Input
Amino acid sequence: MDNTQIQIQFPSPGAWEKFTMTAVFPDKDGFVQHCRYTQERIPDNYLEAFAGVVSVLCVLSDDWQARQVWACLHDVAALEEENFPDFPNIVEAVVLTVEAVSARGGRRMFTSADYPEFTIRTDTAVAFFKYFTGSGDSGVKNGMEKVVRG
Output
């Protein structure tokens, strides 16, 4: 089972400029690796992709603010405009699960079943995910802080 994911924690829900992001992925030997990043350590060329993910979180009603986000890469059905007759109708997408809190202290999980916008099919979101988790050709860790748990 592949548990590759990106976890994003917002210490102050609704304040998107401060966060901790953890990439969780298996290394070549099958051991689970954790690489942590803060907003200062995201490479400039990936800030726009991250901003795109944050903009998706804004679809939550004013009553709910994202506290934690889990992002996973999935194969999903292609949209109509992505339909190529010579290829299977499957594309890679980043799918979000969001834990949100309310001002009254409530907690709730939201998925792409609640908000279809939580399935992000853009090439930049997929490249962002692959870069930080080492999936595919774009996965490079760049010497970021690595925390190994066994």
Observations:
- The first helix runs from residue 44 to 57.
